[in-house]
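Subject line: Sequence and fold of a protein, written as structure tokens
Area: Proteins and the way their chains fold up in space.
Start of record: The labelled sequence and token lines come straight after this line.
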Amino acid sequence: MNDNRTYSNIPMEMPVVREIIGDYLSPNNKISSMEQAGDIIRLRRGLYVANPQLSNQEISRELIANNLYGPSYVSCESALSYHGLIPERVYTTISSTFKRAKSYTTPLGEFEYITVPREYFPIGIEQIIVEDEYAFLMASPEKALCDLIISTAGLRFQSVKAAREYLLFDLRIELSEHNWNTEIISQCAEHRRKRRELHFLQEGLQNG
């Protein structure tokens, strides 16, 4: 319990927890007792994080999302909220992966993973470094919009005007407050899923 990693906000796999607790005849029992005592929080089987009341460090839901299921990056409304582009607070952390879709309910919140094509996956991903202590992967604003559009069933645009109305009125994004890199959207559109909608999105953002 005296290892600094015990009180870190970085998620720990089972081998790391066992290393921290040291020599015990029954390490699994020790880990269970730590969980019951509230020293550590179980995120899923074999993955834990220190109780933030002990670590005095804020838990990063984005970092947890990357570690809970991967490879993945935070995307859709969760990324748009992190980038300050939508006003709503997002309660479920949404990520993209090229593996099968999955969801987790944890003591720290809900985590959802949508599936995107493998070749499309690496486009427009940013590494966010927080205070030189940890890092996580997140969609750029443009990639987050593309992921949201291609993953929303029934969402279709018939024109650039319709795409802009979706951004302005459905998502309530202030388009002029961000310098959009529409090349990312162009690269995403090459992968066929809702290609027309993504082209309309690209034109709508280029028009400011």
